[in-house]
Protein backbone atom coordinates (compact mmCIF):
# COMPACT_ATOMS: atom_id res chain seq x y z
CA UNK A 1 0.00 0.00 0.00
CA UNK A 2 2.78 2.42 0.94
CA UNK A 3 4.68 1.55 -2.24
CA UNK A 4 1.60 2.19 -4.36
CA UNK A 5 1.00 5.53 -2.60
CA UNK A 6 4.63 6.53 -3.12
CA UNK A 7 4.24 5.68 -6.82
CA UNK A 8 1.13 7.86 -7.05
CA UNK A 9 2.82 10.84 -5.39
CA UNK A 10 5.96 10.44 -7.53
CA UNK A 11 3.92 10.45 -10.73
CA UNK A 12 1.98 13.52 -9.60
CA UNK A 13 5.25 15.34 -8.89
CA UNK A 14 6.59 14.41 -12.32
CA UNK A 15 3.42 15.71 -13.98
CA UNK A 16 3.12 18.84 -11.83
CA UNK A 17 4.44 21.20 -14.55
CA UNK A 18 1.59 20.18 -16.89
CA UNK A 19 -1.70 22.05 -16.76
CA UNK A 20 -2.86 21.37 -20.32
CA UNK A 21 -2.41 18.61 -22.92
CA UNK A 22 1.00 18.34 -24.56
CA UNK A 23 0.59 15.21 -26.75
CA UNK A 24 -1.41 16.76 -29.58
CA UNK A 25 -3.71 15.74 -31.13
CA UNK A 26 -4.35 12.31 -29.66
CA UNK A 27 -4.54 13.60 -26.10
CA UNK A 28 -7.03 16.29 -27.11
CA UNK A 29 -9.17 13.61 -28.74
CA UNK A 30 -9.46 11.46 -25.61
CA UNK A 31 -10.23 14.52 -23.48
CA UNK A 32 -12.91 15.73 -25.88
CA UNK A 33 -14.63 12.33 -25.84
CA UNK A 34 -14.47 12.24 -22.03
CA UNK A 35 -16.01 15.72 -21.89
CA UNK A 36 -18.83 14.62 -24.16
CA UNK A 37 -19.44 11.47 -22.08
CA UNK A 38 -19.76 13.67 -18.99
CA UNK A 39 -22.57 15.60 -20.67
CA UNK A 40 -20.43 18.49 -21.84
CA UNK A 41 -19.89 19.77 -25.36
CA UNK A 42 -18.34 17.56 -28.00
CA UNK A 43 -15.28 18.33 -30.04
CA UNK A 44 -12.91 16.78 -32.53
CA UNK A 45 -11.16 13.41 -32.43
CA UNK A 46 -8.15 12.33 -34.47
CA UNK A 47 -9.33 8.71 -34.30
CA UNK A 48 -10.57 6.78 -37.30
CA UNK A 49 -13.84 4.80 -37.46
CA UNK A 50 -11.83 1.57 -37.23
CA UNK A 51 -9.70 2.68 -34.28
CA UNK A 52 -12.36 4.38 -32.12
CA UNK A 53 -12.33 3.19 -28.52
CA UNK A 54 -14.20 4.62 -25.53
CA UNK A 55 -12.57 2.76 -22.63
CA UNK A 56 -10.09 5.40 -21.48
CA UNK A 57 -12.41 8.41 -21.99
CA UNK A 58 -15.02 6.55 -19.93
CA UNK A 59 -12.51 6.18 -17.08
CA UNK A 60 -11.62 9.89 -16.96
CA UNK A 61 -15.07 11.32 -17.81
CA UNK A 62 -16.00 11.87 -14.11
CA UNK A 63 -13.16 14.39 -13.89
CA UNK A 64 -15.30 16.76 -15.96
CA UNK A 65 -18.05 16.50 -13.35
CA UNK A 66 -15.70 17.27 -10.45
CA UNK A 67 -13.57 20.05 -11.94
CA UNK A 68 -14.84 23.63 -12.09
CA UNK A 69 -12.49 24.59 -14.92
CA UNK A 70 -10.15 22.81 -17.27
CA UNK A 71 -7.01 23.19 -15.14
CA UNK A 72 -8.78 21.50 -12.22
CA UNK A 73 -10.17 18.81 -14.53
CA UNK A 74 -6.73 18.05 -15.93
CA UNK A 75 -5.24 17.64 -12.46
CA UNK A 76 -8.00 15.19 -11.54
CA UNK A 77 -7.21 13.22 -14.70
CA UNK A 78 -3.55 13.11 -13.68
CA UNK A 79 -4.57 11.76 -10.25
CA UNK A 80 -6.65 9.02 -11.90
CA UNK A 81 -3.76 8.17 -14.21
CA UNK A 82 -1.28 8.06 -11.33
CA UNK A 83 -3.54 5.85 -9.22
CA UNK A 84 -3.97 3.31 -12.02
CA UNK A 85 -0.38 3.45 -13.30
CA UNK A 86 1.04 2.95 -9.79
CA UNK A 87 -0.81 -0.40 -9.63
CA UNK A 88 2.12 -1.67 -11.71
CA UNK A 89 4.01 -2.16 -8.42
CA UNK A 90 1.67 -4.63 -6.66
CA UNK A 91 0.91 -6.41 -9.94
CA UNK A 92 4.61 -6.78 -10.75
CA UNK A 93 5.23 -8.04 -7.22
CA UNK A 94 2.57 -10.73 -7.57
CA UNK A 95 4.03 -11.79 -10.91
CA UNK A 96 7.53 -11.89 -9.42
CA UNK A 97 6.36 -14.15 -6.61
CA UNK A 98 3.88 -16.39 -8.43
CA UNK A 99 5.18 -16.71 -11.98
CA UNK A 100 8.91 -16.23 -11.47
CA UNK A 101 9.27 -17.71 -7.98
CA UNK A 102 11.26 -14.86 -6.44
CA UNK A 103 11.58 -14.44 -2.69
CA UNK A 104 9.81 -11.66 -0.80
CA UNK A 105 12.56 -9.04 -0.81
CA UNK A 106 13.96 -9.90 -4.23
CA UNK A 107 10.41 -9.89 -5.62
CA UNK A 108 9.69 -6.50 -4.10
CA UNK A 109 12.92 -5.01 -5.44
CA UNK A 110 12.26 -6.45 -8.89
CA UNK A 111 8.71 -5.08 -8.80
CA UNK A 112 10.02 -1.59 -7.98
CA UNK A 113 12.43 -1.85 -10.93
CA UNK A 114 9.57 -2.76 -13.29
CA UNK A 115 7.08 -0.25 -11.87
CA UNK A 116 9.46 2.70 -12.17
CA UNK A 117 10.69 2.04 -15.71
CA UNK A 118 10.18 5.28 -17.71
CA UNK A 119 8.44 3.49 -20.58
CA UNK A 120 5.55 2.75 -18.21
CA UNK A 121 5.67 5.94 -16.14
CA UNK A 122 5.92 8.74 -18.71
CA UNK A 123 2.47 8.34 -20.23
CA UNK A 124 0.77 8.49 -16.83
CA UNK A 125 1.55 12.21 -16.85
CA UNK A 126 -0.78 12.94 -19.77
CA UNK A 127 -4.35 12.15 -20.76
CA UNK A 128 -3.60 9.20 -23.03
CA UNK A 129 -4.70 5.58 -23.12
CA UNK A 130 -1.05 4.64 -22.62
CA UNK A 131 -1.33 5.86 -19.03
CA UNK A 132 -3.14 2.64 -18.08
CA UNK A 133 -1.84 0.13 -20.64
CA UNK A 134 1.20 -1.10 -18.67
CA UNK A 135 -0.73 -2.12 -15.51
CA UNK A 136 -3.47 -3.62 -17.66
CA UNK A 137 -0.94 -5.87 -19.39
CA UNK A 138 0.72 -6.85 -16.12
CA UNK A 139 -2.72 -7.72 -14.74
CA UNK A 140 -3.58 -9.66 -17.90
CA UNK A 141 -0.46 -11.82 -17.68
CA UNK A 142 -0.98 -12.32 -13.94
CA UNK A 143 -4.59 -13.42 -14.46
CA UNK A 144 -3.55 -15.73 -17.28
CA UNK A 145 -0.96 -17.41 -15.08
CA UNK A 146 -3.52 -17.69 -12.28
CA UNK A 147 -6.01 -19.41 -14.58
CA UNK A 148 -3.49 -21.79 -16.11
CA UNK A 149 -2.26 -22.94 -12.70
CA UNK A 150 -5.76 -24.28 -12.13
CA UNK A 151 -7.75 -24.34 -15.37
CA UNK A 152 -10.98 -25.10 -13.53
CA UNK A 153 -11.19 -21.74 -11.74
CA UNK A 154 -14.22 -19.78 -12.92
CA UNK A 155 -13.11 -16.51 -11.35
CA UNK A 156 -9.73 -16.73 -13.05
CA UNK A 157 -11.32 -17.40 -16.45
CA UNK A 158 -13.72 -14.48 -16.03
CA UNK A 159 -10.89 -12.18 -14.88
CA UNK A 160 -8.83 -13.02 -17.95
CA UNK A 161 -11.84 -12.33 -20.16
CA UNK A 162 -12.62 -9.08 -18.36
CA UNK A 163 -9.09 -7.76 -18.78
CA UNK A 164 -9.05 -8.84 -22.42
CA UNK A 165 -12.30 -6.93 -22.96
CA UNK A 166 -10.92 -3.84 -21.24
CA UNK A 167 -7.80 -3.97 -23.39
CA UNK A 168 -10.03 -4.16 -26.46
CA UNK A 169 -12.07 -1.14 -25.33
CA UNK A 170 -9.01 0.96 -24.53
CA UNK A 171 -7.00 0.91 -27.77
CA UNK A 172 -6.57 -0.77 -31.15
CA UNK A 173 -3.65 -2.67 -29.59
CA UNK A 174 -6.29 -4.43 -27.55
CA UNK A 175 -7.86 -5.71 -30.76
CA UNK A 176 -4.55 -7.27 -31.76
CA UNK A 177 -4.22 -8.80 -28.29
CA UNK A 178 -7.76 -10.12 -28.54
CA UNK A 179 -6.80 -11.90 -31.76
CA UNK A 180 -3.76 -13.36 -29.99
CA UNK A 181 -5.99 -14.44 -27.10
CA UNK A 182 -8.45 -16.16 -29.43
CA UNK A 183 -5.55 -18.03 -31.02
CA UNK A 184 -4.33 -18.95 -27.55
CA UNK A 185 -7.79 -20.26 -26.60
CA UNK A 186 -8.02 -22.34 -29.76
CA UNK A 187 -4.61 -23.87 -29.09
CA UNK A 188 -5.40 -24.42 -25.39
CA UNK A 189 -8.64 -26.19 -26.28
CA UNK A 190 -6.88 -28.35 -28.83
CA UNK A 191 -4.24 -29.28 -26.25
CA UNK A 192 -6.94 -29.67 -23.58
CA UNK A 193 -5.35 -27.13 -21.29
CA UNK A 194 -8.61 -25.36 -20.44
CA UNK A 195 -12.20 -26.66 -20.30
CA UNK A 196 -14.48 -25.69 -23.19
CA UNK A 197 -17.08 -24.29 -20.79
CA UNK A 198 -14.62 -21.95 -19.08
CA UNK A 199 -13.09 -20.88 -22.40
CA UNK A 200 -16.57 -19.81 -23.48
CA UNK A 201 -17.20 -18.16 -20.12
CA UNK A 202 -14.03 -16.07 -20.51
CA UNK A 203 -15.38 -14.66 -23.78
CA UNK A 204 -18.56 -13.32 -22.20
CA UNK A 205 -16.86 -10.22 -20.65
CA UNK A 206 -15.05 -9.66 -23.96
CA UNK A 207 -18.34 -9.59 -25.86
CA UNK A 208 -19.94 -7.30 -23.26
CA UNK A 209 -16.97 -4.90 -23.38
CA UNK A 210 -17.07 -4.76 -27.18
CA UNK A 211 -20.82 -4.16 -27.10
CA UNK A 212 -20.46 -1.40 -24.49
CA UNK A 213 -17.75 0.28 -26.55
CA UNK A 214 -19.95 0.25 -29.65
CA UNK A 215 -23.00 1.44 -27.70
CA UNK A 216 -21.05 4.44 -26.38
CA UNK A 217 -19.87 5.31 -29.88
CA UNK A 218 -23.42 5.12 -31.22
CA UNK A 219 -24.68 7.21 -28.30
CA UNK A 220 -22.08 9.89 -29.00
CA UNK A 221 -23.16 10.03 -32.65
CA UNK A 222 -21.66 13.04 -34.37
CA UNK A 223 -21.23 14.97 -31.12
CA UNK A 224 -17.55 14.12 -31.46
CA UNK A 225 -16.50 14.60 -35.09
CA UNK A 226 -13.64 12.49 -36.42
CA UNK A 227 -10.65 14.02 -38.14
CA UNK A 228 -8.77 10.78 -38.75
CA UNK A 229 -8.70 9.18 -42.18
CA UNK A 230 -10.11 5.71 -42.69
CA UNK A 231 -7.19 3.29 -42.56
CA UNK A 232 -7.23 0.88 -45.47
CA UNK A 233 -5.68 1.49 -48.87
CA UNK A 234 -2.21 2.43 -47.69
CA UNK A 235 -2.06 -0.45 -45.22
CA UNK A 236 -3.07 -3.01 -47.83
CA UNK A 237 -0.27 -1.80 -50.11
CA UNK A 238 2.48 -2.35 -47.55
CA UNK A 239 3.45 -5.78 -48.88
CA UNK A 240 3.12 -4.82 -52.54
CA UNK A 241 5.00 -1.52 -52.45
CA UNK A 242 8.76 -1.60 -51.87
CA UNK A 243 8.88 1.79 -50.16
CA UNK A 244 6.09 0.94 -47.73
CA UNK A 245 7.61 -2.46 -47.03
CA UNK A 246 10.86 -0.69 -46.19
CA UNK A 247 9.03 1.58 -43.73
CA UNK A 248 7.38 -1.48 -42.18
CA UNK A 249 10.69 -3.28 -41.70
CA UNK A 250 12.28 -0.11 -40.35
CA UNK A 251 9.53 0.53 -37.81
CA UNK A 252 9.44 -3.10 -36.67
CA UNK A 253 13.20 -3.45 -36.30
CA UNK A 254 13.60 -0.11 -34.56
CA UNK A 255 10.97 -0.97 -31.94
CA UNK A 256 12.55 -4.35 -31.22
CA UNK A 257 15.91 -2.64 -30.74
CA UNK A 258 14.25 0.06 -28.61
CA UNK A 259 12.77 -2.48 -26.18
CA UNK A 260 16.19 -4.06 -25.75
CA UNK A 261 17.94 -0.73 -25.19
CA UNK A 262 15.59 0.68 -22.53
CA UNK A 263 15.74 -2.60 -20.57
CA UNK A 264 19.54 -2.88 -20.82
CA UNK A 265 19.11 -6.02 -22.89
CA UNK A 266 16.85 -7.72 -20.32
CA UNK A 267 13.93 -7.85 -22.75
CA UNK A 268 16.09 -9.80 -25.21
CA UNK A 269 17.13 -12.15 -22.41
CA UNK A 270 13.49 -12.73 -21.46
CA UNK A 271 12.51 -13.35 -25.08
CA UNK A 272 15.25 -15.95 -25.32
CA UNK A 273 14.06 -17.75 -22.19
CA UNK A 274 10.48 -17.70 -23.51
CA UNK A 275 11.47 -19.04 -26.92
CA UNK A 276 13.60 -21.83 -25.44
CA UNK A 277 10.71 -22.80 -23.19
CA UNK A 278 8.38 -22.98 -26.20
CA UNK A 279 10.78 -25.29 -28.05
CA UNK A 280 12.03 -27.38 -25.14
CA UNK A 281 9.55 -27.26 -22.23
CA UNK A 282 11.11 -27.62 -18.80
CA UNK A 283 8.83 -25.64 -16.48
CA UNK A 284 5.19 -25.85 -15.56
CA UNK A 285 2.49 -25.23 -18.15
CA UNK A 286 1.27 -22.01 -16.51
CA UNK A 287 4.72 -20.41 -16.87
CA UNK A 288 5.21 -21.69 -20.40
CA UNK A 289 1.82 -20.63 -21.75
CA UNK A 290 1.90 -17.21 -20.07
CA UNK A 291 5.37 -16.54 -21.45
CA UNK A 292 4.21 -17.68 -24.89
CA UNK A 293 1.16 -15.44 -24.77
CA UNK A 294 3.32 -12.46 -23.76
CA UNK A 295 5.83 -13.18 -26.51
CA UNK A 296 3.14 -13.55 -29.18
CA UNK A 297 1.28 -10.46 -27.96
CA UNK A 298 4.40 -8.30 -27.92
CA UNK A 299 5.52 -9.15 -31.43
CA UNK A 300 1.98 -9.10 -32.83
CA UNK A 301 1.51 -5.55 -31.55
CA UNK A 302 4.99 -4.58 -32.78
CA UNK A 303 4.14 -5.88 -36.25
CA UNK A 304 0.65 -4.36 -36.18
CA UNK A 305 2.01 -0.96 -35.22
CA UNK A 306 4.63 -1.13 -37.96
CA UNK A 307 1.96 -2.12 -40.46
CA UNK A 308 -0.25 0.82 -39.53
CA UNK A 309 2.63 3.30 -39.59
CA UNK A 310 3.85 1.98 -42.94
CA UNK A 311 0.38 2.51 -44.40
CA UNK A 312 0.37 6.22 -43.56
CA UNK A 313 1.58 8.85 -46.06
CA UNK A 314 5.19 9.95 -45.79
CA UNK A 315 8.46 8.31 -44.84
CA UNK A 316 7.57 7.22 -41.30
CA UNK A 317 9.30 7.94 -38.02
CA UNK A 318 12.89 7.42 -37.00
CA UNK A 319 11.43 6.07 -33.75
CA UNK A 320 7.82 5.66 -32.62
CA UNK A 321 7.84 3.41 -29.57
CA UNK A 322 4.50 4.40 -28.05
CA UNK A 323 2.68 1.24 -29.15
CA UNK A 324 5.20 -1.15 -27.56
CA UNK A 325 6.19 0.75 -24.43
CA UNK A 326 3.43 -0.86 -22.36
CA UNK A 327 5.21 -4.24 -22.69
CA UNK A 328 8.53 -2.96 -21.33
CA UNK A 329 7.72 -3.32 -17.58
CA UNK A 330 6.79 -7.00 -17.99
CA UNK A 331 9.88 -7.90 -20.00
CA UNK A 332 12.14 -5.97 -17.64
CA UNK A 333 10.64 -7.92 -14.73
CA UNK A 334 11.05 -11.19 -16.65
CA UNK A 335 14.69 -10.43 -17.49
CA UNK A 336 15.49 -9.43 -13.90
CA UNK A 337 13.90 -12.66 -12.65
CA UNK A 338 15.99 -14.69 -15.10
CA UNK A 339 19.17 -13.09 -13.74
CA UNK A 340 18.44 -13.48 -10.05
CA UNK A 341 16.54 -16.78 -10.18
CA UNK A 342 18.82 -18.41 -12.73
CA UNK A 343 18.58 -21.93 -11.34
CA UNK A 344 14.80 -21.99 -11.69
CA UNK A 345 14.36 -20.17 -15.01
CA UNK A 346 17.43 -20.89 -17.15
CA UNK A 347 18.43 -24.27 -18.60
CA UNK A 348 22.02 -23.15 -19.23
CA UNK A 349 24.41 -20.61 -17.66
CA UNK A 350 23.16 -17.06 -18.06
CA UNK A 351 26.10 -16.03 -20.26
CA UNK A 352 24.85 -18.32 -23.03
CA UNK A 353 21.46 -16.63 -22.98
CA UNK A 354 22.94 -13.12 -23.06
CA UNK A 355 24.37 -13.82 -26.51
CA UNK A 356 20.92 -13.13 -27.99
CA UNK A 357 20.33 -9.68 -26.41
CA UNK A 358 23.90 -8.70 -27.30
CA UNK A 359 23.31 -9.65 -30.92
CA UNK A 360 19.95 -7.86 -30.95
CA UNK A 361 21.52 -4.70 -29.53
CA UNK A 362 24.49 -4.67 -31.89
CA UNK A 363 22.57 -5.70 -35.02
CA UNK A 364 19.72 -3.38 -34.10
CA UNK A 365 22.02 -0.41 -33.56
CA UNK A 366 23.68 -1.00 -36.93
CA UNK A 367 20.29 -1.43 -38.58
CA UNK A 368 18.91 1.82 -37.14
CA UNK A 369 22.09 3.71 -38.08
CA UNK A 370 21.88 2.35 -41.64
CA UNK A 371 18.21 3.32 -41.84
CA UNK A 372 18.98 6.89 -40.77
CA UNK A 373 21.87 7.18 -43.21
CA UNK A 374 19.83 5.69 -46.07
CA UNK A 375 16.99 8.16 -45.45
CA UNK A 376 19.39 11.12 -45.37
CA UNK A 377 21.10 10.04 -48.60
CA UNK A 378 17.78 9.69 -50.40
CA UNK A 379 16.35 12.99 -49.18
CA UNK A 380 13.70 11.35 -47.00
CA UNK A 381 12.47 12.88 -43.79
CA UNK A 382 12.02 10.51 -40.87
CA UNK A 383 9.92 11.98 -38.07
CA UNK A 384 11.66 12.56 -34.75
CA UNK A 385 10.04 14.10 -31.71
CA UNK A 386 9.43 13.94 -28.00
CA UNK A 387 6.69 11.34 -28.12
CA UNK A 388 8.54 8.90 -30.39
CA UNK A 389 10.57 7.58 -27.46
CA UNK A 390 11.02 10.06 -24.59
CA UNK A 391 12.90 7.54 -22.44
CA UNK A 392 15.39 6.66 -25.16
CA UNK A 393 15.83 10.33 -26.02
CA UNK A 394 16.66 11.06 -22.37
CA UNK A 395 18.96 8.08 -21.80
CA UNK A 396 21.02 8.79 -24.92
CA UNK A 397 20.79 12.61 -24.69
CA UNK A 398 19.36 12.46 -28.18
CA UNK A 399 17.51 15.74 -27.89
CA UNK A 400 18.02 16.70 -31.52
CA UNK A 401 18.56 13.36 -33.28
CA UNK A 402 18.31 9.63 -32.72
CA UNK A 403 21.64 8.18 -31.52
CA UNK A 404 21.65 4.42 -32.20
CA UNK A 405 25.30 3.82 -31.34
CA UNK A 406 24.97 5.60 -27.99
CA UNK A 407 21.86 3.59 -27.17
CA UNK A 408 23.58 0.31 -28.03
CA UNK A 409 26.71 1.05 -26.00
CA UNK A 410 24.71 2.20 -22.95
CA UNK A 411 22.51 -0.91 -23.06
CA UNK A 412 25.46 -3.27 -23.46
CA UNK A 413 27.24 -1.63 -20.52
CA UNK A 414 24.07 -1.87 -18.42
CA UNK A 415 23.63 -5.55 -19.27
CA UNK A 416 27.27 -6.32 -18.39
CA UNK A 417 26.97 -4.56 -15.02
CA UNK A 418 23.74 -6.35 -14.13
CA UNK A 419 25.07 -9.77 -15.11
CA UNK A 420 28.23 -9.26 -13.04
CA UNK A 421 26.43 -7.91 -9.96
CA UNK A 422 23.79 -10.62 -9.89
CA UNK A 423 26.42 -13.39 -9.90
CA UNK A 424 26.87 -12.70 -6.16
CA UNK A 425 23.75 -13.18 -4.02
CA UNK A 426 24.76 -10.36 -1.71
CA UNK A 427 24.72 -7.91 -4.62
CA UNK A 428 21.30 -8.83 -6.05
CA UNK A 429 19.34 -6.20 -4.11
CA UNK A 430 21.97 -3.48 -4.81
CA UNK A 431 21.76 -4.39 -8.52
CA UNK A 432 18.00 -3.94 -8.49
CA UNK A 433 18.36 -0.73 -6.51
CA UNK A 434 20.68 0.47 -9.28
CA UNK A 435 17.89 -0.09 -11.84
CA UNK A 436 15.40 1.83 -9.69
CA UNK A 437 17.90 4.67 -9.24
CA UNK A 438 18.56 4.79 -12.99
CA UNK A 439 14.82 4.93 -13.63
CA UNK A 440 14.37 7.75 -11.12
CA UNK A 441 17.26 9.77 -12.56
CA UNK A 442 15.98 9.27 -16.11
CA UNK A 443 12.51 10.51 -15.14
CA UNK A 444 13.95 13.51 -13.28
CA UNK A 445 16.03 14.53 -16.29
CA UNK A 446 13.02 13.95 -18.53
CA UNK A 447 10.95 16.21 -16.29
CA UNK A 448 13.52 18.99 -16.55
CA UNK A 449 14.34 18.67 -20.25
CA UNK A 450 11.03 17.56 -21.79
CA UNK A 451 8.06 17.83 -19.45
CA UNK A 452 8.69 21.29 -18.00
CA UNK A 453 9.41 22.99 -21.36
CA UNK A 454 6.30 21.42 -22.90
CA UNK A 455 4.26 22.38 -19.86
CA UNK A 456 5.40 25.98 -20.18
CA UNK A 457 4.81 25.99 -23.93
CA UNK A 458 1.26 24.69 -23.58
CA UNK A 459 0.06 26.71 -20.59
CA UNK A 460 -2.51 29.47 -20.35
CA UNK A 461 -1.25 32.81 -21.70
CA UNK A 462 -4.48 34.58 -20.70
CA UNK A 463 -6.85 33.87 -17.81
CA UNK A 464 -10.33 34.03 -19.31
CA UNK A 465 -12.09 33.94 -15.93
CA UNK A 466 -10.15 37.03 -14.81
CA UNK A 467 -11.48 38.82 -17.91
CA UNK A 468 -15.05 37.85 -17.09
CA UNK A 469 -15.28 35.29 -19.90
CA UNK A 470 -16.99 32.06 -18.91
CA UNK A 471 -20.10 29.89 -19.25
CA UNK A 472 -22.83 31.91 -20.91
CA UNK A 473 -20.46 33.52 -23.38
CA UNK A 474 -20.42 32.24 -26.94
CA UNK A 475 -16.73 32.07 -27.94
CA UNK A 476 -15.12 31.61 -31.35
CA UNK A 477 -11.54 31.14 -32.51
CA UNK A 478 -10.03 33.26 -35.24
CA UNK A 479 -7.94 31.93 -38.11
CA UNK A 480 -4.18 31.55 -38.24
CA UNK A 481 -3.78 30.58 -34.58
CA UNK A 482 -0.42 29.28 -33.42
CA UNK A 483 -0.31 25.66 -32.29
CA UNK A 484 0.22 26.75 -28.68
CA UNK A 485 -2.55 29.33 -28.75
CA UNK A 486 -5.06 27.05 -30.45
CA UNK A 487 -4.72 23.96 -28.26
CA UNK A 488 -4.49 25.79 -24.95
CA UNK A 489 -7.45 28.08 -25.52
CA UNK A 490 -9.47 25.26 -27.09
CA UNK A 491 -9.55 23.51 -23.71
CA UNK A 492 -9.85 26.70 -21.67
CA UNK A 493 -13.27 27.22 -23.25
CA UNK A 494 -14.57 24.08 -21.60
CA UNK A 495 -18.27 24.95 -21.74
CA UNK A 496 -18.69 24.74 -25.51
CA UNK A 497 -17.22 23.31 -28.69
CA UNK A 498 -15.40 26.22 -30.25
CA UNK A 499 -16.64 27.64 -33.52
CA UNK A 500 -14.13 29.10 -35.99
CA UNK A 501 -14.06 32.49 -37.67
CA UNK A 502 -11.31 32.19 -40.30
CA UNK A 503 -11.80 35.78 -41.53
CA UNK A 504 -14.31 38.58 -41.70
CA UNK A 505 -17.13 39.44 -39.33
CA UNK A 506 -18.08 36.83 -36.68
CA UNK A 507 -21.67 35.51 -36.54
CA UNK A 508 -24.11 37.62 -34.57
CA UNK A 509 -24.35 35.13 -31.68
CA UNK A 510 -20.59 35.24 -30.95
CA UNK A 511 -19.78 37.27 -27.84
CA UNK A 512 -16.03 36.68 -27.59
CA UNK A 513 -13.36 36.03 -30.21
CA UNK A 514 -9.90 34.67 -29.45
CA UNK A 515 -7.75 35.72 -32.39
CA UNK A 516 -4.16 35.72 -33.55
CA UNK A 517 -2.13 38.65 -32.24
CA UNK A 518 1.14 39.18 -34.08
CA UNK A 519 2.53 41.78 -36.50
CA UNK A 520 0.87 41.46 -39.86
CA UNK A 521 -1.67 38.80 -38.82
CA UNK A 522 -3.56 40.43 -35.95
CA UNK A 523 -7.31 39.91 -36.13
CA UNK A 524 -8.77 43.43 -35.84
CA UNK A 525 -11.87 43.02 -33.71
CA UNK A 526 -12.43 46.77 -33.50
CA UNK A 527 -13.52 46.75 -37.14
CA UNK A 528 -16.51 44.55 -36.17
CA UNK A 529 -17.51 46.24 -32.93
CA UNK A 530 -15.29 44.27 -30.55
CA UNK A 531 -13.12 45.72 -27.80
CA UNK A 532 -9.72 44.26 -26.91
CA UNK A 533 -9.69 42.76 -23.41
CA UNK A 534 -6.11 41.46 -23.30
CA UNK A 535 -3.34 40.41 -25.66
CA UNK A 536 -0.38 38.07 -25.36
CA UNK A 537 1.90 38.98 -28.29
CA UNK A 538 4.69 36.56 -27.30
CA UNK A 539 3.30 33.48 -25.60
CA UNK A 540 0.63 31.95 -27.81
CA UNK A 541 0.29 35.16 -29.87
CA UNK A 542 -3.38 35.56 -29.00
CA UNK A 543 -5.79 38.32 -28.06
CA UNK A 544 -9.24 38.15 -26.49
CA UNK A 545 -11.93 40.43 -27.90
CA UNK A 546 -15.46 41.02 -26.55
CA UNK A 547 -18.38 42.37 -28.54
CA UNK A 548 -19.40 45.83 -27.31
UniProtKB/TrEMBL annotation:
It comes from the Bacteria. Keywords: Membrane, Transmembrane, Transmembrane helix. The chain crosses the membrane at residues 105-125, 131-148, 160-190, 196-220, 256-274, 286-312, 324-344, 350-372, 402-421, 427-446. This is Glycosyltransferase RgtA/B/C/D-like domain-containing protein. It comes from Paractinoplanes deccanensis.
Amino acid sequence: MLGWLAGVLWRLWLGQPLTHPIAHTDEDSYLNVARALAGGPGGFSSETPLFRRAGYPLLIAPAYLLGSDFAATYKIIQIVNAAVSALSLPLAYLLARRMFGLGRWAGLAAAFAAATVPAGVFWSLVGMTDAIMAPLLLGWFLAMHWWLRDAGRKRAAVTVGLLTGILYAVHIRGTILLAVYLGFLALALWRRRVPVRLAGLSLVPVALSAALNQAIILWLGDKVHLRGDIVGAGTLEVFTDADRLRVFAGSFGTNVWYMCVVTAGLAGLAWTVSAVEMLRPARDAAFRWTAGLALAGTFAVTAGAALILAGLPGDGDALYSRYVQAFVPFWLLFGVAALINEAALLRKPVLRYTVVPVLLLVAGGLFVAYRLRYAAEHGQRLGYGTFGGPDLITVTAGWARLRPYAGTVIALAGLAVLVLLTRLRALVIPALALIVAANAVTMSVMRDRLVEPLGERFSTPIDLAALGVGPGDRVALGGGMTREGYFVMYHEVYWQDLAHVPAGEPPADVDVVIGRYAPGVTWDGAAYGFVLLQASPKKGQIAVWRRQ
